[in-house]
Amino acid sequence: MKRPSSALVLAGSLTLTGVLHFLLPRPFDSIVPRRLPGASRSWTYLSGAAELGCAAAVAHPRTRRAGASATTALFAAVFPANIKMALDYRDRSTPLRFVAYARLPLQLPLIQWSLRVRRNTAR
Predict the structure, then answer these.
(1) Is the dihedral of CA 15, 19, 24, 26 positive or negative?
(2) Helices (H), 1-123
């Protein structure tokens, strides 16, 4: 059986996370930086829709390159939420702190992954 391409795995990951923004928005609401205007829930839905849009673009070969570029920008744009989560979780239990702190360095491999998908997609 043929293994799915890295691009399709990326698209699937974005789809799963995007759907979670709509099905279970409360955890995402809690990490929206307070500096952003408007309701946290609006930002949660907006970022979920952005992830679904990126997923669709990465999944289709004709839009994959642009989708991977948009995904790279999205991964960079949500990094402040990861910082907020790490700061907010300083006094939580060890497992929760671990999850919050692990999200920080995880962002770099995600960005590298989307850049690799872009680089490996023919023009």
Answers:
(1) positive
(2) 6-23, 25-29, 40-59, 64-77, 79-88, 94-119
Closest of 83, 87, 123 to residue 103, by C-alpha: 83
Lookup: tokens for 24 = 């279970």
How many CB atoms neighbour CB 76 within 10 A?
Answer: 13
Is the distance from CB of 67 to CB of 34 less than 8 angstroms? no
Residue 38, sorted as left (phi over 0), alpha (psi -120 to 50) or beta, turns out to be left
Q: What is the pLDDT of residue 2?
A: 56
Residues 111 and 75: beta-carbon distance below 8 Å: yes
State both tokens at 29: 């609401």
26-56 per-position pLDDT tens digit: 999 999 999 999 999 999 999 999 999 999 9
Instruction: Name residue, tokens 């399709």.
Output: 8
Rounded to 5°, the CA angle 87-92-93 comes to: 135
Contact present, 17 and 51 (Cβ < 8 Å): yes
Domain boundaries, the chain: 6-119
